[in-house]
UniProtKB/TrEMBL annotation:
InterPro entries: Dermatopontin. The keyword Signal applies. This is Uncharacterized protein LOC109471801. It is found in: Secreted.
Amino acid sequence: MAAIAVLCVFGILLLYFPEHGKCREGVPARRQWVGASWENTYDGDLTFTCPGENQAISGLYSQHNNAFEDRQFRFECSDLPGNTQGSTWNSNYQNDYDMELNFLCPFNSVMIGMQSHHNNDKEDRRWSFTCMQVPVYRLADCVWTDYNDLDADIEVPTLDNYFFTGARSQHHDHAEDRNWSYQRCKLKQTGENSPLYILHILKGTMARHTAVAVFVLCVFLLLPANVAPVAGPWVNGYHRWFGFSCDHRNQFISGLFSRHDNGWEDRRFKIECRNLTITPEQYGSTFESGYLNEYDAEVDFECPSHGVLRGIQSAHSDWHMDRNWNFICMEVRGFCWYGCTWSAYNDWDDDVDIPTADWHFITGARSHHEDRYEDRKWSYQRCGLRAC
C-alpha cells in the first residue's frame, strides 16, 4: 500500500509539473500597527475595522483603569496572504452585561473588526464582531491565548500568518473587569500539498488530463475498505471548548468515538474524516447551525440540502455540567443522500462508537441530557452519498 502511494505521488507530480522544479514558497504577512492612539476612550464606544480591504486582526493590546473601571484597546492588523477577501459577516451583541462571552467567527472566517458599548451602571461592555471569509485558505493550528489577570494588561502580539478567529471572556463584579482569551489560527491553502489542490490550481494539458486519471485510479486503489474504528487523538479536554473541522474541503466526518468520565462529568471526543472524490466545482455552500441547544436541553439536527457534516464546535458550562453544540455542514453538488440510518442511543456514561464505513458520512445528530448522570445520550445519522 505504501509503495502504491509513493508511485501515485511521483506519477502525478511528474505529469503535472514537467516544466517546474521549484516549490512555491509561503507568503509572509506584512505587519501594520493601527495608529499609536487607543481605539476607544474610557466609558466610550469602540468601533474598529482593519483599514485594509485584505487585512485581518493579528494583534491586540489593552489596559485597565480602576478609576473608570474600564479598558482601552488598540489593535494590529496584518495583510492576508494573496487576495483572499470573501464575504463579511457582522454579529449582533454576543453577551449581556456581567455575563459570559463565547464567540467564534463563522466557518473559515477571520476577524476584521470589533465593536463595543460601555454601561456605567454595570461597569461592563457588550461586544460584537465582524468576520470575513477567506476562500482558498483554511484555518489550521488554532490556539487560545492564556486568560489575563484581572486589572492587568492584555498583550497578544502578532505572529506571522496567524489571525484572530474567536474570543472568550468572563466578567467579575468585585474587580469590575473581564478575563479575556482570544483564539488565533494560521491560514493554510486549502488542500495544501494535496494532489486535489494541485489539480485544481493548474491549467489543463494532455499530461494533466493523464494526471487526473492517475489520481482517480490511485484514490480507488488506496481507499480503505469496510468498517474501521475511529483512531487518533482526543479533540478536546474535559470542560474545555473545542472546535473541530476536517483538514481539507473534500473531507467529511465519517466516524466518531466518545468516552464519559464520571469524575469530570464530561465527554471527550475522537472524530475521523475521510475524503470524498469530488472536484472543486462540486464544493457547495457551507451551513453553520449556530449553537443549537440551551444547556440541559435537547439537540435535534440534520444538515440541510443533503449536506454533509465537516465541523463540530462545543462549549462547556461548569454550572450546568453540559455542553451546547454547533454543527458545520457543506453541500456537495451532484451528490444526494441514500440509505440513511440513525445509530442506537448510547447508555448513560457508556462509550459512543460510530465506526467509519466506506462512502458513508455523518449528516445529523440527536441528543438529550439527564441531570442525574450529567451525561448525554447520542444518536447520529449516517448517509451514503451517490451521484444524483
